[in-house]
Amino acid sequence: MKNLFQDNKEILFLHQKTAPKREGRYSVILSPQFYWVKKVQLPVKSVSQAKKLAESVFEGNLPVGKYSYEVTKADGEFVIIAYDKEYLLEALESYFIDDAKVDALYFSQYEFGDLNACCAIDNDNSLVNMNSILMQIPRACTDPKITVKNLIENRKLSRRKIKLSSFEEEVIDKKSFIFLAAAAALLFSSFLLEFFGYKNEMAKIEAQKSALIAKYDLPPTTMQLKSIKNSLFKVYKKQKKLRDELFLFSRLSLQKGEYIKNIELNEKGATVEIKLKNPQRKERIKSFISRNFKIVQSDFKDNILRLKIAS
After folding, report:
1. Distance, CA of 254 to CA of 281 (rounded, Å)
2. Do the beta carbons of residue 2 and residue 18 sit within 8 Å?
């Protein structure tokens, strides 16, 4: 993989319709199209505790992938961002080609959190701030006083960079080292406080569980609850497989003139036909799909790649 990350230059807002860049160096602000975000209340007080619960907050709502999480706290609620590092790297390689380089990545949730009006991205898409969550919506602003170009002009970026791989890891300077050494003396007492905090929170969760069982007239025994859960989970797994397969195809980085010709889905898997520009592209497409699903059969004829995928 080429080293996309270089010295800081132009700020670029990246969304799915951004034209590929062939040269230049960029600090990239990602559209909400490239990550997932939720604002929730949790039975914990600190950001570090909330981060440990982040995966469960998104459970069942994310497509297949290996996710990392960022958490901030505001007004007693937690804003949690989920992102797939492999997906982001794949996207960057398709948008920054030839001599184009990336200095650093940022979430628009953090960089444009002060947005208080509809912001035009292009003629068909806009950025809006809804209940402190930045969203990209597929419609134009009725009164576009702000555009993305205005928004990034002379903007000072935050320190909240996205770390995707080892070459982005920050080096601890002398000042940071002294701070960490001083903080180490407090770790033992912090761990004790955290332990007792979790113990109290677990007691609260058990009380909430009992209240829910009474409210919805659920069976009292664990065995009966597990039976209901297993039955519902089987239905959920079938639906999730179909959803994951469809989402995977929507993430394919297709070039101009390429398109998905046909998709057939069933309980055993999927069959897809993809029109490609040239034979060299088929291995890249197969490599992307095989990261999450097993390809049991493939053939290529008349620039059409046919794949049979097992769930």
Report:
1. 9
2. no
The mean pLDDT value of the chain amounts to: 81
Maximum Cα–Cα distance across the chain:
68
Quick one: the chain helix, strand, coil %, rounded to 5? 35, 30, 35
Residue 87 corresponds to which tokens in the numbers above? 């997906």
- On the 0-12 / 13-18 / 19+ scale of CB atoms within 10 A, 292 is middle
d(CA 35, CA 105): 12
Q: Is the pTM of this model over 0.70?
A: no
Q: How far apart are CA 229 and CA 223, in angstroms?
A: 10
Label residue 29 by pLDDT band (50, 70, 90): very high
251: closest CA among 48, 62, 90, 59? 90
In the prediction, which pLDDT does 166 show?
Answer: 39
In the chain, the domains with their CATH numbers are: 10-165 (no CATH), 246-310 (3.30.1360)
Tell me the β-bridge partners of 129.
134
Burial class (CB in 10 A: 0-12, 13-18, 19+), 248: buried
